[in-house]
Design a protein that fits this description.
heterodimer; A: 396 residues; alpha/beta; D-Maltodextrin-Binding Protein, domain 2; four-stranded mixed sheet; B: 320 residues; Alpha-Beta Plaits; 2 domains; six-stranded mixed sheet; four-stranded antiparallel sheet; elongated
């Protein structure tokens, strides 16, 4: 690979990936999340509710983490109302028997403003109603629970399942990261190439290096910038995870994250998939005259469909459709990693997947180079699809 | 491959875009270390010709033959420095980074790129702006950076399309000196420009094109003394001249043309072999003469005639 390709790659990488901006972005994310979680924690700790209950002889059971403290009061409603007005109470719950044969209760909540803890109170009242209904009937609570519970179904698999919910989360996360890489790559190519055309930079560059060398450099530099940007976001996400953990939330790390043996293969698939689609983005961007008005801009989002289709592998990692998608370049970058994590993949499938990916990248790179060479020199108008096809087929 | 004494020779070059004939059967030769100027009105086909010469566009007909025998755009890009007419740079990037990038594209290593960039920054008096983004520079300074990107790798052939546009007279002078220095350093310069007074001072050879065709070719002196050149006689009278007199001799064969520049000032153009003296006597009879002056017809005047389509197809000197 010649020196000018690396010169372009370096230039394009640092044109879009700026350390200072990335660092500021991560720090902003961290500060925002720290403030957010701090506010939530403070709100939870300072949100104790004093509720006076009048007219109830039984216990009102509320969820364990409920902020409501219930006090059975013998004071008159007027006295309690005065305490409410003086903000010594947060609410008064007036309960009276309706007197019907089912011993229904009339319940009224008196508060200064609409409260945020009604759902928790409602749970307690529902529980109270159930207990009263069971007391009137001869059914024991255990019997009622047995009646209402669904039919148990025991599933026996012949191949022991290795997949946990955590694995699924990791699979979804990996697919999402791939989509993010593609979105970021799309924006870099779109902005980069259309601005070069609009600023009339292309002719001078093409007089110095060949369009193929230019697009090759862009593919390396902008793919690298897209991965670096997403990696920075990932680091930011991990730091937020640390903030969440410090804030007192607990979560477990899925076993899939320790599958280091698959990491090289994932890296190849991710990189290959990104380069494959970036070739497409480069070709389409070069035939767009004005991204604000061009009908061709919508075409850039087309690759999102097959990439998203890879997510179908999550519920059925070894279905026929997914097995095909995991072999094709363009979809293999999401479907194959998900299958590797959640399903059974034969070695020959991996081999075919990699072979098709390499061939696909090579063919698309050549076609994109030809379209790019013609497209970047076209100012003020856009080619027809027939012209684009002709460019792609014919070497210049 | 047969080697040629000229740096590049063009034979019967033609190019059409749809039904538009942009370049029609043009032949010329550019000699090593020559400043070769391409003149013509907008839309004459100059930029298309230049793009074909540097291999950016393939000609429909004809061929370019380079000194080493290679043909049609097969010349090593590193040997060409090109400043396009439609030009721009990365406006959000600093001057030094831009120059270093172009140096690297031309194959220079990091330390060479830095050294060469620094030299051009000093040479073009851009030192105060070395770390400034291009968008903060004046148009003239942006133009200087643009030109530096085209020549910093010391190419054999420097192709400059409208290098003076956007420059004030001081910077135009700087550019004239720069082009001369580039030639002295051993490069050949192919120049397309509209500033004819600068071309007269710079060019060793001029080729005029109009409507895609070559209409004139030669040195500035050859063109100015050729069929379209000659002398211009300006006579200022004491009193306004009767316009009917001027119109009466408009079609005379013995002169190229006559025009009333002011009510009391006429300008008569003569070909190289036409007799001014006889006409001076004749025009003296029109009124009392205050002053008269005889000057060589300028490139500007010839250009205007060619651009107006008055004198197509004239050739002063044939290229080899």
């Amino acid at each position: 690979m010649n020196q000018s390709v690396w010169a372009v790659a370096k230039w394009e990488f640092f044109r879009f990936f700026k350390w200072r901006d990335q660092l500021i972005g991560v720090l902003s994310l961290l500060v925002t999340s720290a403030i957010g979680f701090g506010v939530v924690k403070f709100a939870r700790s300072s949100n104790d509710v004093d509720l006076a209950v009048v007219g109830l002889s039984e216990t009102l059971k509320l969820p364990d983490d409920s902020p409501i403290t219930v006090t059975t009061s013998l004071e008159s409603p007027e006295q309690l109302r005065a305490q409410l007005d003086e903000k010594r109470l947060d609410g008064i719950l007036l309960i009276t028997e309706s007197g019907g044969k089912d011993s229904e209760l009339d319940v009224e909540l008196i508060v200064r403003q609409q409260p945020g803890w009604v759902d928790e109170l409602q749970q307690g009242l529902n529980d109270l109603k159930s207990r009263r209904a069971m007391a009137r009937s001869s059914i024991l609570p255990e019997q009622l629970q047995a009646i209402l519970s669904p039919q148990a179904l025991k599933i026996t698999t012949t191949v022991p399942s290795k997949v946990s919910w955590g694995d699924r989360v990791v699979a979804i996360g990996m697919g999402s990261l791939m989509m993010l890489v593609c979105f970021v790559g799309l924006s870099f190519f779109m902005v980069g190439i259309t601005s070069e055309k609009q600023q009339r930079i292309t002719e001078q560059i093409v007089s110095v290096i060949s369009p193929q060398a230019w697009i090759d450099g862009k593919l390396i530099g902008l793919t690298g910038a897209a991965f670096a940007s997403v990696a920075t976001l990932l680091v930011g996400g991990l730091l937020i995870g640390a903030v969440v953990w410090l804030a007192g939330y607990e979560f477990s790390i899925p076993d899939s994250l320790s599958r280091w043996d698959l990491l090289p293969l994932f890296a190849i698939l991710f990189l290959g998939g990104a380069v494959f689609w970036n070739c497409f983005f480069a070709a389409v961007s070069s035939i767009i005259n004005d991204p604000n008005t061009s009908a061709k801009s919508g075409l850039l989002f087309l690759p999102m469909l097959p990439i998203a289709a890879g997510f179908m592998a999550i519920p059925q990692p070894d279905g026929n459709a997914i097995r095909v998608l995991s072999l094709l370049p363009g979809t293999s970058s999401t479907a194959m990693p998900i299958r590797l994590l959640l399903g059974e993949v034969a070695w020959w499938e991996i081999a075919i997947c990699l072979l098709l990916l390499i061939c696909g990248i090579w063919l698309l790179r050549v076609a994109a180079g030809r379209i790019f060479a013609a497209g970047i020199m076209l100012y003020g108008k856009e080619p027809t699809w027939l012209e684009v096809l002709r460019w792609a087929m014919k070497p210049r | 491959m047969v080697e040629s004494p000229s740096l590049v020779a063009a034979y019967g070059i033609g190019k059409s875009f749809g039904s538009v004939r942009a370049v029609d059967n043009i032949s010329f030769e550019v000699q090593p270390q020559q400043i070769f100027s391409l003149l013509g009105p907008n839309g004459a086909g100059k930029s298309t010709l230049v793009r074909m010469l540097i291999g950016m566009l393939p000609p429909d007909e004809g061929r370019f033959v380079w000194q080493d025998g290679k043909q049609n755009g097969a010349l090593n890009r590193a040997k060409i420095g090109y400043l396009p007419e439609d030009r721009g740079l990365y406006k959000d990037q600093p001057v030094s980074a831009t120059l270093e990038y172009f140096a690297a594209l031309h194959g220079l290593n990091r330390s060479e790129s830095r050294r060469v960039s620094q030299r051009w920054i000093e040479r073009l008096e851009l030192t105060p702006y070395v770390n400034s983004k291009l968008e903060t520079l004046s148009k003239g300074n942006q133009q200087k950076v643009q030109i530096a990107t085209a020549v910093l790798h010391r190419p054999e052939l420097v192709v400059l399309d409208e290098p003076f546009s956007g420059l004030d007279p001081l910077n135009q002078e700087l550019m004239v000196n720069l082009i001369r220095e580039i030639r002295v350093e051993g490069a050949t310069v192919l120049l397309s420009a509209h500033q004819l007074h600068l071309i007269e001072r710079l060019a060793d050879h001029v080729m005029m094109v109009a409507k895609g065709r070559k209409v004139l070719s030669g040195t500035v002196a050859e063109i100015c003394q050729g069929p379209l050149g000659g002398k211009t006689l300006r006579i200022e009278y004491e009193h306004p001249i009767d316009q009917a007199l001027v119109q009466r001799i408009q079609g005379e064969n013995e002169i190229q043309g006559i025009r009333l520049e002011q009510p009391n000032l006429i300008a008569v153009s003569f070909g190289a072999h036409q007799n001014q003296l006889a006409w001076l006597n004749k025009l003296h009879e029109w009124g009392s003469v205050r002053t008269f002056q005889s000057t060589t017809t300028s490139l500007h005047e010839i250009y205007l005639r060619v651009a107006a389509g008055d004198e197509p197809g004239q050739s002063v000197s044939e290229t080899k």
